[in-house]
Every structure is written in C-alpha cells, then in structure tokens.
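Batch manifest, entry 17 of 40.
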Amino acid sequence: MRPASRVAWACLMPVLALLLLARPALGQPPSISVSVTPSAKGVEYAIELKAERTVDVVVAASVYVPGRGWGNWTELWRGRIWAGETKVLSGCEESEPVGFGSYVLHVKLYYYTASDFEVVGGEKYYADLDIVMPVESEKTQQLALQCASLNYTCSQLQSAYESLQVECSRAFNELSEARVVAEASRFLLIVAGVAAAEGWRRALRREAKPPPSTAAGGAPAPAVSWEWREAGAGEPRGMPLAKVLALFAAGLLLALLASPLVVLILPPLAPLWVSAFAGFAASVAAFALGALLVVKGGKPLPLVLGMALTAFAAAAVMSNVWFHLSAYGVLKLLEEKAKLEVTEHYAGVVGQPIRVGNWEIALVRVAEVEYVESEGDYYAAGEGEKVVVATLSVRNLGREVSRLGSSTFVLVTDAGKSYEEESVYRLNLLVNASEEVKGKAVKVRELDAYQALAPGTGTEGDLLFLVPKGEKPVKLYVKLETGLLRAAQVEISLERG
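Output type: structure tokens
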C-alpha cells in the first residue's frame, strides 16, 4: 500500500469506528408537530405526522395530570406512512386536576425503515423520538387571572389610600387654626375656673367679728375660733357625708360623659349632633351638681369637691365642643371632596395639547381594536364588542412634584351613550393565542394617574373602553382635580380639526 493511501485509511478509521458503534443508524425520522389545548374536563391534543419517505411508525402518548400523576401509555396508531403522506392523530385526557399546575403531554414516536433503526445487542429495534409539551390547566389559568385581577385591585386600593392620606393631611392642616383657638379657649376657661373658685372661697368664708374687750359682768370674752364647726341648735346643718360622695360620683360620671367619651356609648351610626347634645346635657347636669355641693354642702369637704366638679365639667364641655367641631369639619371636607365642583371647562381635539392648571394633557391617538396585548398576555373583547384604546399624554407644568390623582375618563359614542374606563382584566384572557391574534393585537400600557411626576416631565398611557361594535366613539371627557374642592372638565373631540 502506498504511503498516501495509508495516511487516508488512518484518517478514515476513527470515523468508521464511530459509525459502527453508534446505536441509531443514520436516517431521518418523520416530521412531527404537536398541539395541546385545555378543555372543560382535561386536555385535547393533535399530532401531525409527515413522512418524506415510506416508514413504519408507532405513536404512543401519556399525559401528566396535576395532582394525579402520569397516566398509562396509549397507543394512538401503528402502521406505515407512505412517502409524502400526512397523517393527523388526535386524543384527549378527561381526568380533571385535583391540584394546581400544568398538564404535560409526552409523545413517543417509534419509526423503522431499512435504514432507520437502532441496534441493541446486535438486534434491530425501532428508532424512537420523544416530544414533551406542557399546557396550563383551566383551573391554573383561572387562578392566574384571579391573581392578576386581585393585584390590580390592590394597586388601585393602594393608590386610593395614598390619595386619602393626602386629603386627610390637607383637612387637618385646614383645622390647625381651629385647634389652636380651642386650646386657647380651654386654657382661658381653666383660668376662669380658678378665679371663680377663689371667688367662691372668699364669698363663703366666714368672717370672724372682733371679740369685745370684756364680756358682760367684766369677764374677758372668749376667743372666736376661725375653724368650721358643727351647727348648733337652730342653725342649718350640712349634707351627710354619704350624700356628698354620691353627688360627687354622679357628677364626675356626667362630666366624663360630657367629654368625647360619650361617643363610645352611642350607636356607631348615630348622627354627630346626637353625641354633641348628649355631651352638652351631661356637662350641664355635672355643673349643676357641683354648684349644689358648693352652696348646700355646708362643710369644707363638699365645698372643695363641688369646686373641683364644676371646673372638671367646664373643661369636659370645652373638649366636647372642640372634638365635635373638628369632626364636623373633617366630615364636611370629605363630603365636599366626594363631589368636586367643576369650576373650569376646556375643549380641544385629538392631537392638540390642552393646558389645565399646572397640567398639560393631550389625546395622542385613538384606535378601535379587537385584541390587545398587555405584559405578554393577550386579551379580546366580548362577543359583539370592541376595544377602544385612547392614548393620553400628561405633563407636569408646575414647580413641584405632583400626581395627576383621582381622575374620571368617559367616552361618548355617536349613539349618545357614555362608557367609563375599563381595566385590561375586564377583557377575555386568551391562553393559547394564535399567530393571527398576535399579529392583530395592539400593545397597551395603562395610564398610571398616581405616578409622581417631577416639574417639566410627563408620562403617556392608554385608556381602555368596551364599546359595542355598531357604535362609533366621538368624544372623550376628562375630569381632573385642580385644587381643593375644585375640578376641571376637558371635552376632547375625536375628529381632528
């Protein structure tokens, strides 16, 4: 053998050895495509075989059911597919899942020709091909949709909570002056009570007359005692100690009820004026009992308790007045906030920027579509409906970081009907969207009205409306807050000027 031939054989020997040791023989299996769709009670699947040359095949399938495990292998078909022939096989698994998760379809294709086989231990066997395809169950899809809707609701509640915090801070700032006045009034009332108590003490103090130098008969007169003493015969006696303590306890309880604590014993939905009147009546009764102890007590202890009770009742009624005035102010502010008065009106057309207070808004474009895409998911309108996508641009022209806040968007059609803004989760979720749907779907990003915008910056987002197919949108109304208890309304025509 020539040297060149020896070199060629030396290079070919490893390749021949690998070809002899390989288990599957050289060959091309039939092309196979698998599709799986969830059904009401399980999954349905279709298997399409296409052979470029004549081949004997065996097709088997097994399905994993969430919570149940793998099922038995099912032989779908066994036979020969001729060159250029296409064969479609179908099957279903009607086992309902008992847990959350995905169905998994395992398809095994065995094929054999004179050149397509496997060699094991010197014996020829069918060559095989495996295809594994997962698909979500309807229960998992419903859970995912519910979770997405719940997340959206939570985000809306969080935004509403933040807005309510801002409004409450505004309300309490508005009431700060009233609080200062109430505290000053309470202080003056305490000072007046102390002065009144001192006046009571001086008015009721028994003045001792100076003793005569001598008594009748020339004997020295006895010294006059400055201390209180028991009334003698013919003199009025004071209240018994038990009665004094009972009156003081009753008055103290009434004084406590005169404070904002009276709200605790009333029904939860009682009007505000009921608790205010009840507290005022309790304070008057407590003050009367204190005055009674001062005037009729007759002893030092009733006098002290009576003055303390009158002072405490006066302080309680002032706190009751301050509490109810503050509560009334907050309730009125929240009530007025719920119905903002529109003080400004604007009009424009699509594509035209409109300045409203410290904001500039513009309706960029409007599209009527059948399918939308949001964060990788595809949605469709209901039967007989279409989705109107209005893209809105918002810009902050003020000098402070601000949020657009609570706004209202209403679409009007040529039928004279109004439609409010909808969330993407109100649409029908398409689990296995076809390529045709994906090609028609319009990608949307919903407008976040609570996004904080720095001065001179803006954002853009989409508004979604569900409208019957036979109606045409003609106008978009935008109502937004421009100040405390003030709002502006913008009418945008959907026809360019």
